Amino acid sequence: MCGRYAASADVDELVEDFEVDEVAEQPPPPSWNVAPTDPVAAVVERRDKQTEEVRRKLVQVRWGLVPSWSKNPGGGARMINARAETVAEKPAFRKAFAARRCLIPADGYYEWYAEEPPAGEGKRGFKPVKQPWFIHRTDGERLVMAGIYEFWRDDARPADDPEAWLSTCSIITTSATDSLGHLHDRMPMVIAREAWADWLDPGLTDPARAVELLAVTEAERLGAYPVSKAVGNVRNNSPELVRPLAEGAGE
Predict the structure, then answer these.
(1) For 32-69, b where at least 16 C-beta lie within 10 A, e where not — what string?
(2) For residue 229, what is the DSSP state?
(3) 37-64: per-residue pLDDT in tens?
(4) Where does 4-106+138-217 sit in CATH, by number?
(5) Is residue 251 among the annotated active site residues?
(6) Transmembrane residues, as ranges (predicted)?
(7) Known catalytic membership, residue 111
């Protein structure tokens, strides 16, 4: 799964890298400890209902998808990830996958690895320590995670009330590559740069075609190293969280 990630790019970097036409909603500030239900930056394409023009926008969405038919937004934290194997069919995700796909930029993401007992010792009485690892591209490029987003309306508020609408998202995941499988059995899917336009295209509503655009970052382009356990506390948020322990990130 992907349950915590880092996203340190500022607005100007994202606008330039993704060739954004409009900053529709000011994205949250850079974060090295993005957690479920946090506001996150996403790149989308939307068609203007009057002009029919498609514009690429930088928006803010909440991490944890709330289906449009939900009675309340409380279950979003359970839907931070959507499995690639079922995203096109699962009722909570299929409408968004067909019509509302997005790009979610990240520096990398965290996984926690439970240490095994020392060789020759049994598991009785052994309390495994969960060590966080930071997974990133070794070439320094940004991870562009495949996402879907949805709109939920609070029927208790007037439709023209901005507070009546909630935008949320999920990150699509798949089975981890062999090199990362020892850390966790799932990993985020990505969208290659040459597929960004097709993935975002609101005119592409065929789920089968959208599935073909999903990709896995090649194992040789991914690296992982242990980081400070401070990342386990969502209140901690600084560049030190993504520094390798060998560089003095501390415990």
Answers:
(1) bbbbbebbbbbbbbbeeeeeeebebbbbbbbbbbbbee
(2) G
(3) 999 999 999 998 888 899 999 999 999 9
(4) 3.90.1680.10
(5) no
(6) none
(7) yes
Q: Dihedral of CA 196/106/27/166: which sign?
A: positive
What count of residues does the chain have?
251
- Which of these is catalytic: 102, 111, 150, 169? 111
Q: Which run of H or of E encompasses 224?
A: strand 222-226
- pTM (2 decimals)? 0.89
Q: Are 130 and 114 in contact (CB under 8 A)?
A: yes
249: pLDDT confidence band, cut at 50, 70 and 90? very low
Domain ranges of the chain: 4-106+138-217
Q: How far apart, in Å, are the Cα atoms of 95 and each of 66, 82, 89? A: 12, 13, 9
Catalytic residue among 2, 45, 150, 169: 2
Three-state DSSP class for residue 136: strand
**Residue 48 DSSP code:** -
Residue matched to tokens 């190293």: 225
